[in-house]
């Protein structure tokens, strides 16, 4: 394996100037600081723009303590690296310029990361719990013989993390005995680090140029002018109660527009073809934690609650007064959504 | 053509039924599993369906479909379900209930089995609904150094060529690779069949090979220690409003509008 602490001058300084109050902290925390955490936060980019929601990895890295480096790879990523260099909390940005990494395929990204993790001697590697992170990091973990920790909601110490299991019906705190920790982090628990105030250096990473056995053919992304579901401040969401795709498309977009909200859907609505799969909120879809989650025609099955119950305010419209959604909703309206949703939309627009 | 014969491995996991609300044990060591209804992980049902449909609906040259599960004796029930859906035979790797494998351990076990079975296509669910890790397929692909397509919503196989549409943030993307390959299944992939009574009876005669982790040379030492398992913070359901105006004013009061 590889050495864990990088023997840099900076580290030496840190050790020297550790405050004396450290001793009074928990053994875990002081052990963490003594080991000098250094984190590699993997950043995502798309078409030459930094994906700011991937900056939750930086936020999580800061919670662990020690230095945080960003990692970016793809075609013409110089501009993205410069953007990332301004991110608050990053000490360095590692950049690998190669078109082969543009589509984020795990088969060549995994050896790329393994090489750069070894080179940098990191103690932690973090990526957002996004489609990209979920696809990639376990492959990296296997190559490094590490048991990854997925969907981390909070960092207790450098080796102890909190994550949801059973669709968020139980919260697990785990302690890792691996010398290297690989984490995917929940976007709604780690808001993106600020994109200003930083002045990281940019350094070229190692490129193992691994063979890519998989070819990227095409993509079909849902086009929308609305805010992105996972990070929207407001979300309106529809379920099986909408009855058809026509009704979903008739009622939900105007309500979303009236609020400036993203649109989500329950699995039942997605399975019935009312809404695209990418809109699914829940255990097997997206996790959201907006300021306002307003849903209509959703009963509140545990798998759905898993994806939205950390919302600040939950409001629901449902004709079944006994629906489980009312047990979590801050504001519940019992009524026929086909009357109430248009009325709500009109009244919100009038405000 | 023998090279393009499909030898499919389908790992399946026995989990608490998706409709059951799990209860956290009072001593915070885990979730209560005894006396609770269990069934096959829903994503694994999609894997079995996909494997079986390659043979019976898409008429591809499927030589063998092997279901595999690691767990206590009751995991055999899950394997019987897979065989009743159409898997040809099964492998049960005995693992004590109180010492479940972590995804990395499962991936190492599956690598050993895939090599023994000369598998060239492995379907796994994208995640197990108990642990929610979503790692095993990708780890296995890494260990075997095979291409991977996770969260598949459509799989097309022609000879050695595999085209997979996969669910990504914001839509789908399509990838192409050659066998051997790892595919993890997402909800839209198919509609799993129900096992018919005659097929359930037939499945009782299908073979289940028993193996142990020692046979496979797998170190099952966990890397993660459970510090505690807790109930999530309960939300206070906040009562109901009479009408739309009431909803708007309550939302304003709560600062959500």
UniProtKB/TrEMBL annotation, chain A:
Stored InterPro entries: DHS-like_NAD/FAD-binding_dom (IPR029035), ETF_a/b_N (IPR014730), ETF_a/FixB (IPR001308), ETF_alpha_N (IPR033947), ETF_asu_C (IPR014731), Rossmann-like_a/b/a_fold (IPR014729)
GO cellular component: mitochondrial matrix
Flavoprotein listed as a keyword: yes
Keyword Transport: yes
Subcellular location: Mitochondrion matrix
Gene3D superfamilies recorded: HUPs, TPP-binding domain
Bound cofactor: record note: Binds 1 FAD per dimer.
Listed cofactors: FAD
GO molecular function terms listed in the Swiss-Prot or TrEMBL record: electron transfer activity; flavin adenine dinucleotide binding
Biological process annotations from GO: fatty acid beta-oxidation using acyl-CoA dehydrogenase
Alphabetical UniProt keywords: Electron transport, FAD, Flavoprotein, Mitochondrion, Transport
Residues that, per the record, bind FAD: 240, 266-267, 280-284, 297-304, 318
Chain intervals for the UniProt region annotation (Disordered): 194-215
Boundaries of every Electron transfer flavoprotein alpha/beta-subunit N-terminal domain copy: 39-225
Family (UniProt): Belongs to the ETF alpha-subunit/FixB family.
Function: The electron transfer flavoprotein serves as a specific electron acceptor for several dehydrogenases, including five acyl-CoA dehydrogenases, glutaryl-CoA and sarcosine dehydrogenase. It transfers the electrons to the main mitochondrial respiratory chain via ETF-ubiquinone oxidoreductase (ETF dehydrogenase).
Complexes and interactors: Heterodimer of an alpha and a beta subunit.
Stated name of the protein: Probable electron transfer flavoprotein subunit alpha
Source organism (scientific name): Cyphellophora europaea (strain CBS 101466) (Phialophora europaea)
UniProtKB/TrEMBL annotation, chain B:
Pfam families, sorted: ETF
Predominant location category: mitochondrion
Annotated Electron transfer flavoprotein alpha/beta-subunit N-terminal domain residues: 28-220
SUPFAM superfamilies: Adenine nucleotide alpha hydrolases-like
GO biological process annotation, one example: amino acid catabolic process
Its biological purpose: The electron transfer flavoprotein serves as a specific electron acceptor for several dehydrogenases, including five acyl-CoA dehydrogenases, glutaryl-CoA and sarcosine dehydrogenase. It transfers the electrons to the main mitochondrial respiratory chain via ETF-ubiquinone oxidoreductase (ETF dehydrogenase).
UniProt similarity note: Belongs to the ETF beta-subunit/FixA family.
Subunit structure: Heterodimer of an alpha and a beta subunit.
Name assigned to this protein: Probable electron transfer flavoprotein subunit beta
Classification of source organism: Eukaryota, Fungi, Dikarya, Ascomycota, Pezizomycotina
